[in-house]
Each structure stands twice: as structure tokens, then as C-alpha cells.
# Entry
Amino acid sequence: MPIPPGSPAVGRLLLRDDVYRRLRDAIVDGTFRPGEQLKDGELAEWLGVSRTPVREALLRLGGSGLVVTLPGRSTRVSAIDTPSVRDARDVIAAMHALAVRQTAGRLGDDDLDRMRDANRRFAGALDSGDLAAALDADEEVHRIPVAALGNHALEAVLEQFDPLVRRAERLRFSADGHASVELHSRLIDLIAAGDAEQAASVAFDIWHTLPTDERETG
# Structure
């Protein structure tokens, strides 16, 4: 497994969640590619931590479908599996629709302005071809209603399944994600207007524009 050069250690007091997020993000952004073997010793050295939090993170990643572990053999980054991504996408879409339905008309001006600003950054990142920034800005647009709702069960579902969907979403943005800019704008306007049902419908539809097969992006 090639370890990315120049990645700084993150400190001995790194929390388990931080290890998980670092490894999750490295899979989502393509640093670790489908089929690549992940060795806990090499990952621990890369992150500057012991093997224990790395092993725990790999177990969590297995629960999210990002890695596949063969007992006594190896842990590898999972392939982008069409049925798994489709199932995760449907769950993610339903959760975001619920969050938007419950928060439409209730978000303050600051939250709405943050959503609009994130959408502008999303559009700019797409124009410049910065996929990492595009994914971050897109995530921020959708995270604001979720955070405002404060439903921890919903957040836990998103935490589990969102990374699997984000990996496929990166493929979409590498092709053309500009249709999402307009959909985001419409979503924000509907939330501001308090149109809960239409806003929830748009939120649901946004996620169903996501291709679930690499071939759909070509």
C-alpha cells in the first residue's frame, strides 16, 4: 500500500473519531483507491498513532461499506458497488428530505446566508475543478438544516452511509455537477419561504440526481 508522502502526523492524542475521519476522507477523495490493501501498521505510522485506533476505525469503515475485511487475511478498500451506493443514496435522500421538511421556515437569516455562501463556493470549486472543495461546500449546504434540526438518530444514519455516497458523488462532480448549483438555490429559496413539502421534494431529488454507477458519469 503506497502511503501518501508529506502527510504530517496528527499527534499521539488523536481521538478515535479523528482517525476514522482521516481514513474515511482518504478513501472518499481517492487517496486510497478501490481494491487497495490497507495495513494497520502502515496507517498507524502515517497518522502517528498506535494500531488500536486504526483497527477500530477500519471496523467502522467496514460498517459503512468503505472497506472489506477478510478475517485473517487483509482489509481492502471496497469497490464502488452499484446496489450498495443506490441503497445508501435512497436512505441519505430520505434523511435530508426529513431534515428540510422539519426546518423549512425555521432557519434564521444567518443559516440561510451560510447555505447561499456555501453554494457560491460550491459553484466556484466546480468551475476551477477543485473536487475536494466542491465536496466540502456541497456537504455544508446540506449539513446546515441537519444541524439545525438536532436529530441525533438522523445524524447517526448520515454518519454511517454518507461516505459511501460521497465517493460516488465525487465521480459526478468530476464530470459535471453544475446542475446541483441551481437545485441548491431552489432548495434554499423554498426553505426561506417555508414551503416544507416542496423543499423536502427538492432535497430528495437532489440526491437522486446522483449516478450510482461509474459508467453513468461518462
Summary: Strands lie at 67-70, 74-77.
